């Protein structure tokens, strides 16, 4: 990172900058909920944004269709008044799979992600017969690591198979614990020479889809400098925001909480300066 990058501005709440943005692209897991409970302050902030004219699109690397995320949010008690639309890496991933219709696929991930391929022409086969690999996660993210699949990945790389990664996140917080995601497997695959196509953040297609949906709902174009992106991960949320031309807003109490929550703001600024990307703004939790 350049030493000339502007310092991150500390916020006590989103209301301090609300008038600067017409669209908020908000991460879900780590900001709105932690996989166990929803964060009431974040919900109230999103509702307040919409009441004041800022559109809210929830953008998540969940490898599932948006309808399932909406159902999950409802289960957590998140009202529909907190968002205008939802875009998932699963939505982008389904388009990538459709482009390979009929090609034999090996699916690496838990069965809870099966809705991702429902209705698609994506015949599942054993590893040795696969034409490409779909990675939605680890079979057991409580115990497995990318090393668990070392032999499998080596075989795929040796045959030159492309992996579609449905969730570029390396890790996620689940009820205070950090567990690995599909992105960690994809990274391990790249490190041994495998080719990976990523469906979600920080890559542009998911942001472009979110912006297009927001503009359609508002009935008018939205300038990039009127877009912000809230998230808890430097590698996906903040890097993706910067690449898309949006203002990155970092929630500290997510996957980087161990480094940031107990630190002073001077220490936080030092930490940001050591990262690949620096957020424009930061606050402990998303609140109004």
Please state the average pLDDT score. Answer: 94
Distance between the termini: 30 Å
CATH architecture of the largest domain, by name, is 3-Layer(aba) Sandwich
By helix and strand content, what is the structural category? Answer: alpha/beta
Oligomer: single chain
Pfam families: Hydrolase_6 (PF13344), Hydrolase_like (PF13242)
Keywords: Hydrolase
GO molecular function: phosphatase activity
Organism: Bosea lathyri
Word description of this protein:
There is one protein chain. With 288 residues, the protein is α/β, with parallel strands linked by helices. It has two domains: 9-90 and 202-283, HAD superfamily/HAD-like (Rossmann fold), CATH 3.40.50.1000; 91-198, HAD superfamily/HAD-like (Rossmann fold, 3-Layer(aba) Sandwich), CATH 3.40.50.1000. 31% of the residues lie in helices and 18% in strands. It has nine helices and 13 strands. The strands form three sheets. The chain has a seven-stranded parallel beta sheet with strand order 1-13-12-11-2-3-4. It is globular.
């Amino acid at each position: 990172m350049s030493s000339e990058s502007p310092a991150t501005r500390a916020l006590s709440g989103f209301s301090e900058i609300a008038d600067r943005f017409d669209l908020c692209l908000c991460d879900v897991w780590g900001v709105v909920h932690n996989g166990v409970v929803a964060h009431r302050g974040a919900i109230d902030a999103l509702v307040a944004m919409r009441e004041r004219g800022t559109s809210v699109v929830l953008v998540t690397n969940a490898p599932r269709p948006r309808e399932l995320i909406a159902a999950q949010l409802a289960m957590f008690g998140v009202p529909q008044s907190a968002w205008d639309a939802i875009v998932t890496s699963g939505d982008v991933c389904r388009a990538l799979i459709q482009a390979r219709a009929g090609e034999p696929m090996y699916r690496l991930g838990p069965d809870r992600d099966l809705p991702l391929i429902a209705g698609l022409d994506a015949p599942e086969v054993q590893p040795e017969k696969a034409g490409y690999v779909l990675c939605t996660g680890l079979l057991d993210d409580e115990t497995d690591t990318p090393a668990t699949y070392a032999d499998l990945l080596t075989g795929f790389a040796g045959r030159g198979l492309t992996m579609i990664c449905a969730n570029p996140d390396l890790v996620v917080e689940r009820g205070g614990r950090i567990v690995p995601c599909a992105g960690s497997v994809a990274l391990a695959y790249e490190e041994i020479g495998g080719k990976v196509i990523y469906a979600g953040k920080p890559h542009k297609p998911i942001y472009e889809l979110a912006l297009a949906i927001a503009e359609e709902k508002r009935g008018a174009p939205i300038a990039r400098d009127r877009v912000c992106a809230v998230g808890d991960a430097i590698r996906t949320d903040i890097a993706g925001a910067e690449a898309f031309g949006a203002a990155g807003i970092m929630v500290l109490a997510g996957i980087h909480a161990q480094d940031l929550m107990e630190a002073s703001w001077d220490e936080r600024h030092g930490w940001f300066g050591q990262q690949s990307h620096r957020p424009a703004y930061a606050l402990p939790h998303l609140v109004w």
